[in-house]
Amino acid sequence: MSKKLMVALGVLLxxxxxxxxxxxxxxxxxxxxxxxxxxxESLDKLVFRIGVEEYVFEKEDGQWxxxxxxxxKASKTKLEQLEKLFAAGLSSDLAAEKGADLASLGLAxxxxxxxxxxAAGALLAKFTxxxxxxxxxxxxxxxxxxxxxxxxxxxxxxxxxxxDFPSLLHSELKDLRERTVAMIDRDAVTRLQWxxxxxxxxxxDKPDAKEDAPAYLRSHWVMQKPEEGMAIxxxxxxxxxxxxxxxxxxxxxxxxxxxxxxxxxxxxxLTVTTAEQSVTIELGKRVLEGPKPDLAANDPEARFLxxxxxxxxxTLRGGAAEGLDLSVxxxxxxxxxxxxxxxxxxxxxxxxxxxxxxxxAGDDWFVNEAGITAPVDKTQWDPTVSSLAxxxxxxxxxDGTDSSALAAPEARSVVLQxxxxxxxxxxxxxxxxxxxxxxxxxDEGPVFLLGKGLVERLSKAxxxxxxxxxAGSESASAQVPDVxxxxxxxxx
Length: 492
Hints:
- The structure is a single chain.
- This protein has helices spanning 3-22, 76-88, 165-169, 215-218, 234-245, 318-324, 328-331, 378-389, 452-458; strands spanning 36-37, 43-50, 53-60, 63-68, 72-73, 90-95, 113-119, 122-134, 141-147, 154-157, 180-182, 191-194, 199-205, 219-225, 247-248, 251-252, 268-273, 278-286, 303-307, 314-316, 344-348, 357-361, 364-369, 372-375, 395-396, 412-418, 423-432, 438-442, 447-450.
- The protein is α+β, with helices and mostly antiparallel strands.
- A hairpin with a 5-residue loop joins strand 27 and strand 28 (438-442).
């Protein structure tokens, strides 16, 4: 063997030896992109934590319930989406390098969002939820997660359709709770009781209803207590039924006690009865009057609410609360008179025998004061007649309201006489509210507020309805005599 060949073989041997000595062992570390959560149909518990805040949801008898921090119903929509998500499972398509900046992935917050997933009574997965990301050059959504049993962040994905899983896992904790706290078929309700106000109303069939008429036209609501047979404002009941058919709360008042919320025995209690169930809704005081005024969400009329027998406290927007908070005065039918305009024959502006009046003569009207008559301007008078024929209260006043203005010397009396001989007496206070309404009373009945328009027309002196024409007019009646000018002292 030549010397050159020997040298070449020696060099080759040294190269091989150097390669063997310096070669690294292949990595035994598993692929960091292989993380996954197996799909399961046995999901039975979810624990959400953000810092020290914890919400626990557990499945009980097929229904998801929140068990921590308070017991209540879970959001049916959200929990069904979570069930669908974990039935399909999660996987990953990318892993961050060991030592990667977790803060940039949304995984190093001072109050990290951690989710525990339990199935069949055992822990299935636990991970911290990070930032949502979009795969470059695609519309595919991913979510950075940090599994509790590893030190590598993974970019997770889901194959489930119809669920935006990054947004779902980033849901506000309160949004995982059920905001619809009562769902009652309005057509199935047969009885409403405001026990705090002593009110009891029943749904009854209308005796003259047509069989083929819609259900809501075949029945009406009738007062049983405290004034049996009192005519009810049916629209008020309709508002109540619409509200309770899907009663949605605005906020959760977990940090407020029942006493602080006004549930001390004096709260409003509305019991809704159907053939299958009875639910009592309770309204406490205004949220702004409680220890957590921020829960009012800029709604000064928001009220605390709870369902009797359940521990959770909520807030209800002011508009919905107002619709449920009814009294006898609010329920009373506001229609007071109903007759054809032609049935009205005389309107006296005062209760005395010599009070001025406006009287019908055929199709015309004449004002009469102190025995002197003049024709009435029908364009001014006819609206008054129409309003009186369909007299309606703006609202009835609550018990205890000061109605002394109706007995004051300056109060007015208007007497209506009909063609059939019936008479109605309307008292009207001289003092008006800021909106122009005035206290009124018909035939010694309940006191109510009368609307601005009719108040202004009935506050006129009868002579102001008389025809006035320019001098020299041939087609008009004569000028109204001075005696028909408004009296200096109101007629009682």
